[in-house]
Design brief:
Rossmann fold; single chain; four-stranded antiparallel β-sheet; six-stranded mixed β-sheet
């Protein structure tokens, strides 16, 4: 895990390496300060020697300013390294997520990914900054100060050495109780983000059904869970500071008491006593030693908090797409023919029931194919195998006579355009949204695609026409307008296969008929696969596939299915009996 995270430092390595070097310089100066103070007291103040006071005072000032300089520079480099490390983490996570197949994305919820990209990265960033700065500074301070204290008086130094086991045992007990709580907290963060995301995404539904109080209660329940866990964890961590303070004050009192005795004894026998300056410097070193231990405990606290975050980040970084481009991939799709060769598919690898069962179909290039079936019959699953959003569990899917697993992914998906059941527009102008289909499309090409999708008329009615701003998610256009813009965007790809997954459900039947007529007249060579709920949308298709429980119930033209397929006939009769136009 550490190795994988360290690989994200990259171009900020110079800042990460400079910080410990600057910290060593700061510590060296700080360790010299108590020694200079001892000389100032013993040689200058107690003897009344002004020259010694001026010399040691000047050395003290220079040492303090040099220490300050190293500390400030170390803080700057640590901040640069930490911010850069976080930037690279988010960059690597984001771009790795872009490579995920749908099955990979299914492992992580949207709210979980957001938490990992924000809260988890911030926790790891703060810990990294503390490690390259304080995790270097504190151990070096501990070692150097201990050595200096031992040179002054070995017996007196045993006081703080006796406190160290107490601190270590106490710290271990605190950390072992706290880490599991933080692991639970970050999972609850995912749940909180999910609640907020659902509420904002479905705000119209919430208000329409007057469920605001219910949503507030869901949020409060999850927030309360986070609050309780954090309080529990912080209560444990709060024991760290009093434990440190007790040790520091105990050591200071003992050293002051024993030091005072030694100073008094030095009047009779200087060999067994100590000077006032030595006592002052020893107290300073003890405070430095115990403070460095306190900083180390804070580092351990941060590492405890961020350990769970680091594990969650590495999970995202190490997740590899199970759909990749093979070596020697086919780079050209010959035509829009599609073959399903005894295809079985299941979303869960250990599922007892397949979503698709023994699907065996041949769709010729340029054909118009309708797909009908009840909810959960596998219509969307079937078409998602064509651009290789998923791979079949058994059997094969061929496009242009070649197994989809042998294609270069970009080449395959550039030849297949999908307008999904759930349409998505992005914040930006209409032109910017359309250019998702072809970033180099001219204004004439965009207008032609929009006319074919029956979108040009309503676009021209806007004051800014094709420069009209679309809000995130397309909230400032109607459902039918959104669907037609998405169809136009797909047409700009000039695909060999066009898949419409119930993408005209929000438009009226006349507009639906005009769109289908435009497809017949202007893109006759493109294979068109239309998933629809209305028989009228597919009755003129060259082939209509009827799905039931993931299997092909029947396949044929409208007339053939009316004669031999009871399911199709039942759907047709239910839609036409009430006077619905059979167009």
């Amino acid at each position: 895990m550490i190795k994988r995270l360290a690989a994200c430092i990259r171009q900020y390595k110079k800042y990460a390496l400079a910080t410990p070097a600057l910290m060593i310089g700061e510590v060296a100066m700080e360790v010299l300060i108590p020694m200079v103070m001892a000389k100032l007291i013993d040689l200058g103040i107690e003897r009344g020697d002004m020259s010694q006071i001026w010399i040691n005072g000047a050395i003290l000032l220079v040492t303090a300013f040099v220490s300050l300089f190293f500390g400030v520079m170390g803080g700057r480099t640590a901040a640069a390294a930490g911010a850069g490390f976080a930037r690279n983490l988010r960059h690597d996570m984001y771009y790795n997520i872009q490579t995920y197949s749908f099955s990979n994305i299914d492992k992580f919820s949207t709210s979980s990914i957001i938490t990992r990209l924000t809260t988890d990265v911030s926790n790891v960033q703060n810990t990294f900054q503390m490690i390259i700065r304080m995790a270097v500074r504190s151990p070096i301070t501990l070692i150097f100060s201990t050595i200096m204290a031992l040179t002054i008086n070995v017996q007196m130094s045993m006081v703080f050495l006796a406190c160290m086991p107490v601190l270590i045992i106490g710290l271990y007990l605190i950390m072992s109780r706290t880490h599991p709580i933080f692991r639970r907290v970050f999972k609850t963060y995912d749940k909180l983000n999910n609640v907020v995301q659902e509420n904002l995404h479905g705000v119209r539904v919430v208000k329409n059904f007057v469920r605001e109080e219910h949503e507030v209660e869901k949020f409060n329940t999850t927030s309360e869970s986070i609050y309780k866990d954090f309080v529990h964890a912080e209560r444990n961590l709060a024991l760290n500071s009093p434990l440190m303070m007790v040790c520091i004050y105990t050591c200071t009192l003992l050293i002051s008491w024993l030091g005072a005795k030694l100073i008094m004894a030095s009047g009779n026998n200087p060999d067994i006593g100590m000077t006032t300056g030595q006592l002052m410097s020893l107290i300073a070193y003890v405070i430095q030693i115990l403070s460095s231990l306190m900083m180390l405990s804070m580092i351990v606290v941060m590492m405890t908090i961020s350990r769970a975050s680091a594990q969650r980040i590495v999970e995202v970084l190490e997740e590899k797409s199970d759909i990749t481009t093979p070596e020697g991939a086919v780079m050209q799709v010959k035509d829009g023919s599609v073959d399903f060769d005894h295809v079985f598919f299941s979303y869960a690898s250990r599922s007892e029931k397949d979503c698709l069962s023994d699907v065996d179909l041949h769709i010729p290039s340029g054909a118009v194919v309708g797909v009908l079936g009840g909810t959960g019959s596998g219509k969307s699953t079937l078409v998602q195998l064509i651009p290789r959003l998923y791979d079949p569990s058994r059997g094969s899917v061929k496009v242009g006579g070649v197994d989809t697993r042998k294609y270069d992914l970009t080449a395959l998906r550039d030849s297949v355009a999908m307008v999904l059941q759930k349409n998505e527009l992005f914040s930006g102008t209409i032109k910017e949204n359309l250019r998702w289909g072809n970033e180099n499309a001219t204004d004439e090409e965009m207008m032609e695609a929009c006319r074919l999708a029956q979108a040009d008329d309503f676009i021209q009615s806007f004051p800014d026409k094709y420069d009209t701003w679309i809000e995130q998610g397309g909230t400032n256009v109607s459902g039918g307008q959104k669907q037609r813009l998405c169809i136009a965007r797909a047409l700009l790809k000039k695909p060999k296969i066009l898949i419409l997954d119930d993408s005209t459900s929000a438009v009226d039947m006349r507009t639906d008929a005009l769109i289908r007529e435009g497809f017949r007249n202007f893109i006759p060579d493109t294979t068109k696969i239309i998933i629809a709920q209305r028989v009228a949308s597919v009755k003129e298709a060259d082939m209509i596939i009827v799905l039931e429980n993931g299997a092909v119930a029947d396949c044929g033209t409208h007339e053939e299915l009316m004669q031999r397929c009871a399911i199709y006939r039942e759907v047709h009769d239910s839609q036409t009996k009430g006077g619905e136009d059979d167009e």
